[in-house]
Amino acid sequence: MRKGIPSLTALQMFEAAARLGSFTRAADELAVTESAVCRQIAGLEARLGVPLFHRIRKRIVLTPAGGTYAEEVRERLDQIEQVTLDVMAQRPRGRAIELAIGPTFASQWLIPRLPLLARALPDLTLHLSARTEAFELSDTAFDAAIYYGEGLWPGTEGERILEEGPSVPVCSPSLLGRRKQLGLDQLLDLPLLHLNTRLRAWSDWLAAAGAAQPAQALRGPRYDLYTMLAQAAAAGVGVALIPRILITEELAQGRLVVPFTTLPAGIDNRKAYYFAHRRGLAPDDKILQLRGWLLECGAQEDPVIARGR
């Protein structure tokens, strides 16, 4: 028995009173009487041997010790609540899959397809966590990962699910004005938007298109993520180079358009998106089901992968 720990009821009432600055409002939130809150907090102060509140007429103010204690108690109660919700989520239909995934691929590709996943695998619950850099899967609590690269990570097993494919120039229809298309000279008169990790993308694309590579091809606003790049282009900030698979919805809805009738041959890009799980551990049925669904979606959108299966 943990004799040094106050009752959870007292801690909940203290946290509510500290957060709301009122015994009355704490009582209302917890659906108890104000006198019950006062009794529990008085008992808590007696147990701790320090005052937690200054009582100033009809107001209460946290003491320095009370403020520190309130922060710690709130953090612990939040942790208990989260753990409880996690346990409740483990319903008889099966545990959830913890999936690490890049934020852009998650928001631009996977999340729009989650309704399809729910219909195909209604008993599967997926928890997504964003990761922007490579990590050792075996050192984490993740069940699996979707990542971008040229092959499987060390210590993992899995399969390529989708080629990234070539990037296409896109912009907002408002940026074109009355024009429906752009020439290369007109393109260079507009702001070119860049991804921080691919600063030569425009120079390479212009070279493939047969254009000179003026200095302005390297100028323009820079962004960390393709999601930022897509939003900036849709807002009319400029023209961006983005892989088509990451902007299918924006193109379908007309928020982004490709302002060229003829595009240069795609620049060779051997990178793709991979689904991986730990090597040496037999994946459970739900991970296998998720992998199968991802491979099916990838094959529908990537004819190169479809031919290889």
Question: What does this protein structure show overall?
Answer:
This protein has 309 residues and is of the alpha/beta class. It folds into 3 domains: 8-89, Winged helix-like DNA-binding domain superfamily/Winged helix DNA-binding domain (Arc Repressor Mutant, subunit A); 97-161 and 270-307, Periplasmic binding protein-like II (D-Maltodextrin-Binding Protein, domain 2, 3-Layer(aba) Sandwich), CATH 3.40.190; 167-253, Periplasmic binding protein-like II (D-Maltodextrin-Binding Protein, domain 2), CATH 3.40.190.10. It has 13 helices and 11 strands. It has helices at residues 8-20, 23-30, 34-48, 64-89, 103-110, 114-120, 173-176, 184-188, 201-208, 226-234, 248-253, 285-301, 303-307; strands at 53-56, 59-62, 97-101, 126-130, 144-149, 156-163, 167-170, 192-195, 222-223, 239-243, 272-278. Strands 4-3-5-11-6 form a 5-stranded mixed β-sheet. Strands 7-10-8-9 form a 4-stranded mixed β-sheet, with helices on one face. The chain is elongated, with a radius of gyration of 27 Å. The chain starts with 7 loop residues before the first helix and ends with a helix. The model is unreliable at 303-309 (pLDDT under 50).
Brief characterization of the structure:
This protein is of the alpha/beta class. It is built from 13 helices and 11 strands.
Secondary structure elements and their pairing?
Elements: H1 8-20, H2 23-30, H3 34-48, E1 53-56, E2 59-62, H4 64-89, E3 97-101, H5 103-110, H6 114-120, E4 126-130, E5 144-149, E6 156-163, E7 167-170, H7 173-176, H8 184-188, E8 192-195, H9 201-208, E9 222-223, H10 226-234, E10 239-243, H11 248-253, E11 272-278, H12 285-301, H13 303-307
Parallel strand pairs: 3-4, 3-5, 8-9, 8-10
Antiparallel strand pairs: 1-2, 5-11, 6-11, 7-10
Helix pairs in contact: 1-2, 1-3, 1-4, 2-3
